[in-house]
Each structure stands twice: as structure tokens, then as C-alpha cells.
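Internal tracking record. Fields below are filled automatically when a chain is submitted to the structure queue. Please do not edit lines marked as system-generated. If the sequence contains nonstandard residues, flag them in the REMARKS field before resubmitting.
Queue: standard
Priority: normal
Entity type: single polypeptide chain
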Amino acid sequence: MAMIVPLLLSTLVIPVKDQASAFNVQAETIGAVYYDPRGVSTVLHIYSDGTSIKSLSDISQVPSDARWVTFMVIYMEGAEIYYSRDGVTTEKKKISSWNEIPADVKWLTLSNFDGSFSENQLISNQQYTYSVDGVNVLSGPEVPANALWATLSYYTTTWAGEGRALNYSRSRETYTLNVDPIRSASIRSNGADPTYAKAGDEVTLRITSLPSRRLTGLSIAGQAVTASSNADLTESWATVTLGPSTPEGIIDFLVEYEDGSQGRTLTATTDGSSVLFDNTPPSVTLTPSTSDWTQDNVIINVQSQDLGSGIQVEKWAEGRLDAAYFRSGGNLASGKVITADQNGWYTWYAKDRAGNETVQSIEIANIDRIAPSLNLSSSPTDWTSVVTISADAVDHESGIYFTHWAPGVQPVSFFKNRRGNFFRGSFNVTSNGDYTVYAEDYAGNAATRQIAIHNLDDIPPAISWTPSTIEPTAKDVVITVDVSDQESGVDIVKWAAGQQQASYFATGGTEVQGANFAVSENGLYTIYARDKAGNEQLETVEITNIYNNGSSLQVSLDNPGWTNMPVRIQLDITGNGSGIAVQKWAYGQRDSQYFENEGTLLADTSFTVDSNGMYSVYIKDNAGYEDVAVIEVTRIDREEPVILEPNLTPDTWTNQSIEVKADATDNSGMVSRMKWAPGVQDDVYFQQGGGKPFQDVFLVDINGDYTIYAEDAAGNGSVRGLKVNNIDVQLPIVHLQISTDLPTNENVTVMADVYGTLSPIAAMKWAPGQRSISYFGTQGTEFDGGFEAELNGWYTIYAESAAGNKQIEMIEIHNIFKDKPVIQLAASPTVPTKDNVTVTASVYAPNPIVDRKLAYGQLDKAYFSHGGDLWSDQLEVHDNGWITYYVRDHAGNEALKQLEITNIDREKPVITLLGDASITIVQHTDFVDPGAVASDNMDGDVTDRIQVTGQVDSSKPGQYILQYSVTDRAGNEAEEVIRTVTVTPLPDKGDSEWPNPWPGSGGTWSGPPAADKGEGDGGTKVPIPGKGTEETPPEPTVPDAGKEPMALHDISGHWAEVAIRALYDRELVKGYPDGTYKPDIPVTRAEFVTLLVRSLQLDGEGKAPFTDSADHWASSAINAAVEHGIVEGYSSRAFGPNDPITREQMAVMLSRSGQQAGILSRDSDPGELSFKDQSSISAWAREHVSALIDSRMMNGYPNDRFLPQGYATRAEVAAVIYRFILTQEHRK
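SYSTEM-GENERATED OUTPUT FOLLOWS
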């Protein structure tokens, strides 16, 4: 049965009885998720104003600008939405947040999500409820794109391992949605492209709408038109023909219509369609790639545009052609160019999308492919240094563009890259050989000619020269010149002082007489030669060996200060350029004559002396010049300084640096520097850069030998040794041990061995925790050798030496165990099951476990010292009962954990029929199953899980079987229970329809509707309950003995018999023609209101606003009940008179009647309800149900349930009305 419903829903579109407002449409969505058989979850609500998504806190207060409203589950992981953007197509999209929801869609609903709200169980078998006209509400597996609103209304899923289905009648909420009756508007032309039009084309505007709208005016492109419509006024259309005077651009329109009494206008289409009126043909401009002469094809560039509808097709052809030619001929343009390969006319054609045409022609006349002609000549023809070559170039088409020439025989390709030399008419050459002349016309055609030249002398004379001497001299230097020429011969030879150009010698210079000339000064000289062909040659001569001045000498010491080393005397010679011939030196003060035969030769510009005294230096240059210089040496010193006894501060144990104070004396009266160094060093060590300089004192921070060095200004040095042995910078070494590293419950002794310092240990302390050295300045506990730790954790030990060195060492104690192990147990499953239960056991312990056991039963620790079974991390338990787990760690700590298994259930639930197991009804009488109740030893009441198979067709006589089955949460299936329903043929009385047994009723009930709503609030799905068992009411007044008792043979012994007979006597109820009362069939809302109004004896003159009860037989009773505030209806327009009344609806109406009659207080505080299904009582009915329970006008069922959505039967209605009347009479 559960599988059949989704299959039927997936193939049918089921009309729903409820109707919505045409303009202020009554729409639906899910207000909260209610599942069958159980489960509920809150939801959020959002809506769109067309531009943004907004949250909605109150579904009854939907803003007027809302396009749609939908529910949203709080858990958004993997959600899917279902919507339409254009009213033509639908889309689905997965989202993970609100930000991904489109705001501009026409309708939207959630279509998939995690139906378990956290267990990743997607929903399936989705059904949707929607309306396309604002009146009829439909349901189906899909939503049409043109829906006004839509919502998810049915699905199945799994939650907590159990199948769940959405109970839409309980979950749904209604809200008011403002809807424009114009649903769509589109505009088209009859042109080739419906979005464009030109003069003469027709434009049609089409509108779809709800039938309620009324057109009051319509214009297109400024023209008033009359619209045509279909029979049901849901489609309208109008057409206009455009003329040349119509303004170009988007065709505008104006639709004026009335929505009820409100006037509205429409100026834009809903699908984005539009028509562009374009009466201007395209513009075309043709431009050749060049207007200059060319031998290549000419590219005709096309610039075309259409600012209206845009260009649709473009063509071209050779010749001067009109538009008619291109309608069937021409070449389709592949780009915006035409390639012209010959001179002539070319035509371009363009047509826009509206059909406007344009042609444009151009003539090409600049193509030239004939090369120029070229003739060459040269002059003179005799020997010369320059020859003129003349060229005669002629071109009869585009003309000569330029001429070039180049030496050698060159091809045309050589000149194509503009190589060679440009000329006009003629050019000069100065070398013999072949020459090529090139001519090119304006179109790029080219020709070449060659000419050979043989009468040129282009080699200048050769010049060589020789000076009379290259050695230094004070005399003139004679230059000998040799000039030769290979061809035309030497014409003239000249010379001049300085570096001159050839042009200088045209009028200047001195002609060389013979073969030489003399010069008396150093410098540059130029020799010039010219041959008879006019070739010139220059040669530059430089003279540098003539000297007129002598050299000079100065001497100096390389070190003018004190020294104990030989002193070097430096020579500073200023030469005259001739070079130094002799260098000498001698001890004492000497003159130049002394050095003619004496003195020590010098090969360098310096020499050394090792004693104080006077020294003379002598030089002579290559030109014969002499000079002597004298210098005195006075600062050579070789006596060492004396170092005094050094002093140390401090001279006791310290871990700081020691200050050493030292001083020295010298015979020169000045010690230039002092140094020190670790170790035993000699003076060479310090003289080679070792050691550190100091003045008066220096610091040392390491024990050992040190050396002090002193040096005088002459560089004489002396050393003195020093020993330091009172520095101790070694940190104490703290070695820690513990008395045991095995697990223990006793204190652990920490022993410290401190060593590693030069100075003795002065102090030892300890403290718990990880401490810094500074901590022990004022705190810590002194100890000698060891101390005891009572707890696990870190301990810090501190030691300090006599030199002040401090050290800490930390140790972590982690083998003191006083905490017991912890056992954790978990059973799976925890819900009822008929299978075994798996117990998972785990242990947390800071120390390894040495013993693990388990046993069935509740046992103590002592038991496990000799008993128990092996531990199991996964234990299969077959029966309910206690299990004890035991562990012991190797420190002797024990733990015990017990678990009771109570959810193994292998007992079947029991089904008990309500009413008779065999029921007989008359043909065409509505059959309502009295139902059944079911109980389970563990789940308790499982009535709501009963599944019924089989159907009763009351229109056909026969015997029908209803089968009842139920399964508890553990999976145990009850023994099936069967009810037999016999339909007997209708008695032959001439009427095919039984009258309603309520006085004044005018019709029959056709069975339960697809969905029902609460009285004045949200709706719930209505289950068919079993037979009511209201408690027996108080005894009524005994009727007159003389009155004939009624013949209702099906109420004898019924629990409501007294109430039924009492109302029958008061003529408030009556039976059926077959002598039955049928106490267990449902009562409609109209029937109950009628009975209630008669019981209260209410009158009313008003008219209820409900559209579905205006012509109903019970309309006067409904109108009176509305006027007196007893009923409100499902909405402002719907009452549902033929819907069966639910028990909570009955409670609301009865409670309001009690307040109206004064037997129930409006301000009383109802007590708390205690029914098992009290959570199923709707919020709007809870207070009323509580008031009636307190007043004992209504009671629950024996299984401690109220069944708020169950249909109220004729017996239950009789009982509560009878109690109501008795209470009212008692008050009077």
C-alpha cells in the first residue's frame, strides 16, 4: 500500500479542492516539517521582492512586494531549489547558502535537502502543490513553468534509521500573495526577423492574463488599436502596420487594464521581447588600399554599418551594378574587403535585418605591371680620377619613381630593399670596374643595366721617410723622404710643421728639394705627395729625441720616525725625457766631482742604510746633465723597553673577568704601544700582528698563561709572562636519579650529584614545577644529596658554585599512579531490536592494564580475584540483563563498570479491532473504518503505525476484507487481524440516495477530502480514527412513560446510547430510514455547526463571507455561528462545510459556544494536558481542548490519547452536545 501512493502521484495531476483568491492569491508553503509516523522540525521562511532575498519572520505578514515565499531548512548542506525564470522553462539548482538563490525568478520552492537534518539522507518521491490561475490548487510530481506559486508538499526520507513521509496537511501554512493578472506580454513583427521591422511591416502584441482583468485601452507605436481575445479572455492580441512616419527605434506600447477596481498599465514585455523599427538603409564607404600606382592587387576596404537593425547580408561583384542584381547574384562577402586584380569598376551591396538595401561602386585605375626602359653612357674616356655615368630612364605608365646605382654586376633583387646609391640623371665613380644602374616606376616595376669603367687612376702615391738619428740629441734631425707612384707618376712633394690636411697643401707647405729636409724642434710634421691623376697622399712624422734642458734630483726617507730597522732613502728624479745614464750614493757629504770615480752604483730609485749619519746621492742623464742631493739619518734605535710587574683585580674566586694592570719604560722616554695575548708568546708573535692592544689595563675571562708585550717608537719590543687561575665560569653539572622508575604508589626519592666546577659548590635547592634560576634567589628548599617527590610532575633542582655560577636541572616524575582506570561502555543499537546487542568496551588508563575480565550479572571487585571471563572489546549479547566489566593496572588500581541491556525485544505487538470484526452496511452508504488500536510490550501504544490493506466499495454489494498489520520498532510483526465488511443491496424504495440523519440537512457527505484545515489556523492531515470511547455522561432526565421509544436498533448497549436517545427525544438528531443511527461514522462541519446553533437557539441576520457555503443547506446556521464568534473558517473565503470535523475543531467550536453561553470563562487558566499525543494538538486548539477537558465536556481515549486530528463520530458529537446542554441547564 505504501508503494502504490507515490506511483499514482508520479503519473497524475490531482486537483485540490481548496481555492485561492484571484488577485490577493492564497498561496501555500511548509510552516514546519511534520513527519509520519513521527518527527518534527522547524523551518525558516524567505521571500524575494524581485531584486534581493529577504528573511520572513511571520508567514502571516507577507510584504505586498513579495514575488514568492518558500520555506528553507536550517541545515542547508546539499539543498536543491526548483524555479522558473521566464514562465516558459523550469530549472533546478544545488545551493549551499541563501546567497546562491536567484531573486529575479517567477516562483521558487525547495526541491531536495537532507530530510534527516544532519544524517545526509536526501528526500525522494517529491510531490508539489501549485496554482497557475490563482483559483485552482493542483498537485503533481512537477510544477509547470507558468505557475503563480509552488511548494514542495510530499516526500519520503529516512531519519534515525526509520522511513518518514511528510504530512503536508499538518505541515502547510497559507499566506497571501499579490499577483498581477497580466501573466505575460510579448511583441513580434511579420518581417524575416520578428525582432525588426521596416515601413509596411506588421507588428503584433500578445498578452496572456488571468480572466479577471479587463482591458480599458491599448496603443502600439502611438496608434490606438482594438484587441482581439479568446473565449475565456486569457489571451489577447492586436496588430498595427508601420508607416514611413513611424519614429525609428524600439516600438513602444501601452496596455491599460483594470485589476478589480484598480487601474493598471503595462509598457514592457515579460519575456524581454521587443521590435526595432528601422527605415534607414545601411551606410557603405569603399576605400582603396592605395591610390598610388602599384603592380599588386588593390585591396578595397569596406566600411559598412547600420545603426538601426544591423547588417544582415553583404555581397560584392565586378562592374557597376544595382541592388536588384544582388538579390539573386553577387559574391557573399567573407570579410570587409574586395581584392581588385585589374583596373575597372567594383560594387558592394548591404542589406540590414529590417530589409533596407544599399549599393556603392568604386573605380580602380592605378595598377601598372610594365617595367621602365634604361640607357647608360660615361665621360670622359681618357685617364682621369673621376668618371661621370649618365642614365636615361623612361616609363610610359606610372612614371619613374627613383634610380639607384651600385658597383659590380647586381640583380634586380639587390635594389628591391633600397640598397645602392640614389641619383638623378648621373653620378660619379672613382674606381675602375663594372657598375649597375637600377630604375623603378611608381608601381614598383624595375629594370637594370650594366656599364664597365677602365680609365680611372685611383691609387695615390706611396710615401716613406727616415730620421737622421733616433737617439737623444741637442742637434737638428734630418728627415729623408722617398715617394713613388705606380700609374700616372709623382707630380709634387711638400712638407709642413704640424698635422695638416691635404687641402692645406694646395697653397701652403714647403716643397722638398732633393730628398730631405731638417727640423730643430720636437713635434709633428706632415709630408704631402700628389700624382698626375690628382690622387693625394699624406704621411705624419713625429720627432721626440731633441732635448734642451737637464734632469734634477731630490731625496727623502721612507720612514722619518723612530725605527730599529735600516732606513730606506728614496730618489725623486725629474727627467728631461732623455733618460738617466748613471745613479750613485756615498756616506758623507759629497760633490759631483767625487762621483766621477767613487760612490756606489744604484740600479733602483732607493737604497737602505743601517746607521745614523750624512748621505749623498748623484745622477747623470743621457744628455750629460749632473745633480747631487744630501740627507741626514738620526732616528735609528735598537734598545728594548722594560715591562713592570702587573697587578690582578680581583685575586679571589670569580666568574667574572679579571682586570690586569700593566706598564713599561723605555730609554727613548716613550713607549708607543702595549699588547697582551693568551698563552706564552714571544715578541715576534706580537710584531707579526698578534695580540690585542691596551692602555694601562686589560680584561681576561679564562684561566691560563698570558703574555704582555711593550714596544717603543723604533719598533723594539719586549715580553713578560702572567698566570691567571682564579676564574671559574663552568656551570655546575647536575646529575639526577630517582629511587625507582617502576610504577609505584609511594613517594619517589630524587638524588642529585653536582660536579663540574673549579670552585666548590656553595648552595643546593629544589622546588616543585618548572622553575627559572631567578626563582631560587629567594625561594626553594635547601637539601643535601636528595629529597622525596610525593606527586607526579616536574621538579627543578638548583646548584650554585663559590664563583657564583648557577645551574638548574629538571626532572619529570611520572611513575606515581594513584588514579584508577576508567571503563567506557556503549551498546548498539540502543533502540528496540529483536537481534543481538553489541556492547563495545574501551578502557582509559594512565598505566598499562595487566588484568581485564567481564562477567554476566552485577558483581563486585572481589569476585574477579578468582572469577570472571576473558575481556572482549566487542561482545554479542543475546538477552537482556546486567554485564560487569573489570580492569586492574600494574600499579594495583582497579575499576568496575556495569551495564544493563533492556532493548532486546522479541515479543510481537498485539492488534485489537475497534468496533465489530464483522460490519454490515447498506449499498451506497458511506463506510468509515472504525479502525483498531495496537500495543507493544516495549513501544506501548503503536496504533499510529497500523497499516490497513483492502478496500470497501459501498456502491457494489458483496463481502470485503480489511487486513490490519503493525510492526514495532524492534521489527516484530503482529499477528494479522481481519475485519469483514458486508455491503447489502439497497432496499427498493424508489430513492437512490439516503437522506442525511441530521434535522434540516440538505445533502449527503461524499467522504473525506484530500486535505483538511484547522478552524481559523493551519491545516493538518486527518487520520481516520477507530470507534470513540467517550466516558458515559451523566444520566439524563427520564422521558415521559407514555412516549413511544425510538427504534434505533444499532445503539443498544452503545457507550453513547443515553446521549443519543436524549437528543433524539429533543428532536436534535434522528436516525436513518433503515432504523439505524450509525454512531461510528464521521460528522461534517456543517452538521456539527447546525446542531450547535440549534442547541444554543442562536439566530443571525448577517451573511458569512465564505464562497463555498453561500448556497449550502446549512448556510443560515453557519452565518449565525460566524456572527456570534463560534466559527471563523479556514480563511476569509473558505469554510469547508462538507469536510468531516476533527476532534480539535469540534473542541474549538464547543469552547467558543461555552464562552458565548457563559458556562466557560474567557479568562480562566486551563490546566496542563497529559495525553501521549498532546504534541499533535494544533497550537490554535490547545487552549480550547484544555478548557473542555477541565470542564469534563470532552474526554480522551482509554489508551491515554486524544486523537486531535481524528474525525468526530456521530456518537462523540451526541455525547459532547448532550453534556453541553446539561451543563447549560444546570447553570440556569
